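In response to the reviewer comment on reproducibility (Comment 2.3), we provide here a single inverse folding case reported in full, input and output, so that an independent group could reproduce the run without further information from us. The structure tokens appear first.
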């Protein structure tokens, strides 16, 4: 692994190989940051080469964050830079579509390891590191799904609800240590996310109009840099849905989501 020896600010982005995470990493690269960019697959090497075209140093890290060892590998890569970490974006995550009666338990437990456990694990390192320096910014990706029950991706929504409340709690604690925590809550966004979740045969499949991942990332980036508590990522209609979700009964939101996420066949 190459060492980073420049005075530029340093950002860690997990899930930087594609989708929203790649677009976020791109914004940091364009804005003069060096990067530690992580992904699970070899795609992270290609993404890192793209990101390095903006003049910064980019350390690609391939690690499975559903495993504690993977989280430690990522944090070791940050430590090996020998630098202060100015920004951490905890973004890697996934969903699993399908009826709970049919979905695989081990797969769902692994989703919880990724979407919940790895966020707490990595945040522990990041928070202690930043608090010691009395500065830093953390962006944690949650979801609009944190504001409703999500039948037919029944484990996913609660995992993102955890992420949201974890981020908001951490924000309050870290204030006095000079560290700002922001939550990004994207609505349905054009990435590999729904296909990977096996949801092509639902209303979230290829025919759906989704938010631009570039717009979602830009909104998250700006909210982070401005120190906001949370931002709904997406178009005005997505933001209106988030607002309405504050007042609608959970049972009604569950029925609405079931209609959209239920496999057609
Ligand atoms: N797209 C949406 O509609 C939507 C809506 C709300 C919230 N979100 C949230 O946004 C975040 C990013 O999703 P996305 O839409 O950008 O999806 P995506 O295009 O599928 O990207 C997911 C990223 O996470 C990485 N990743 C997946 N599993 C991993 C694992 N076990 N260990 C390490 N890295 C792993 C992937 O790496 P590889 O490519 O190498 O596998 C990839 O970089 C997720 O946390 C998701 O919950 C998405």
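Designed residues, in position order:
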């Amino acid at each position: 692994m190459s060492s980073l020896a420049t005075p530029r600010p340093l950002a860690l982005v997990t899930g930087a190989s594609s989708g929203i995470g790649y677009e976020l990493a791109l914004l940091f690269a364009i804005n003069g940051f060096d990067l530690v960019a992580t992904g699970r697959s070899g795609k992270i090497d290609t993404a890192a080469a793209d990101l390095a075209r903006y003049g910064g140093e980019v350390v690609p890290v391939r690690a499975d964050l559903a495993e504690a060892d993977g989280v430690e590998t990522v944090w070791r890569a940050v430590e090996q830079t020998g630098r202060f970490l100015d920004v951490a974006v905890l973004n890697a995550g996934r969903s699993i579509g399908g009826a709970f009666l049919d979905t695989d338990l081990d797969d769902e437990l692994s989703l919880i390891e990724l979407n919940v456990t790895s966020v707490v694990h990595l945040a522990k390192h990041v928070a202690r590191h930043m608090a010691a320096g009395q500065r830093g910014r953390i962006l944690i990706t949650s979801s609009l799904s944190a504001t409703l029950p999500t039948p037919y991706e029944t484990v996913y929504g609660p995992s993102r609800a955890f992420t949201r409340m974890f981020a908001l709690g951490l924000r309050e604690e870290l204030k006095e240590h000079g560290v700002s925590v922001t939550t990004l809550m994207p609505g349905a966004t054009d990435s590999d996310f729904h296909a990977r979740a096996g949801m092509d045969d639902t209303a979230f499949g290829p025919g759906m109009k989704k938010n631009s991942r570039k717009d979602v990332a830009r909104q998250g980036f700006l909210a982070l840099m401005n120190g906001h508590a949370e931002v709904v990522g997406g178009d005005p209609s997505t933001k209106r849905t988030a607002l309405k979700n504050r007042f609608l009964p959970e049972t009604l939101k569950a029925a609405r989501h079931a209609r959209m996420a239920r496999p057609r066949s």
